[in-house]
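re: ur question from earlier - yeah i can do the single chain one, its not a big deal. heres the input i used so u can compare w yours
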Amino acid sequence: MSTIVTKKELLDLIVAAGIKIPAGQVRIALDYFLDRPNRDVHHDDVRPWITGECWTRLGEACDDPDRAIRRLKDIGILIKVSKGVYRLDPDAITARKVEDFPEDVKAAVKERDGWRCVMCGRGLADGVELQVDHIRPRSAGGPGDISNAQTLCGAHNYRKRHLSAYTAGRRMFETMRKQALQNPDDQGESARIIKFCDEVLELFRLHGIDD
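and the output i got, formated as tokens:
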């Protein structure tokens, strides 16, 4: 377990991890957890404190203290331990401090992926720029190693950054299905991929993750 316990140390760690320290109600929620590092905190215990501090500091009501807590999780400051329970774990924040892939790693990833975008299959011969992308974003603690890397063209890397993870994932399976339809084979692999994608896309539909 990390020995980082003071507020200043924690704030310095958050900044070093590239996380922008929030303001307003979310910053108030953060103060509660800064005083309680490495402790599991149930949202029922912190909600009244956030509400009271919002009145004291901001002169306004906190309409949704749970949303402020979830925001701290979404930006990587808190981890969710279980339903309604969160923790500020300095070690988890440290794990976010991942540099970009070194050039030799980028080359190895592109070589592994056949120098083509894993989403659309286009490569340098098609006049597209190839980029090495974190499959799980660095902002979510994704590691900077080959297992978390993929080759994307500039267009798909842009779309991935600006779409929700759910939407990007659904479109990836749609693309896989389309490519399998366009490239049938005698071994039945294309049919297997199509069936797999159909089953995954049906789950997206059943759970309402569908445009």
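The chain is about 50% helix and 10% strand. not sure if urs matches, ping me
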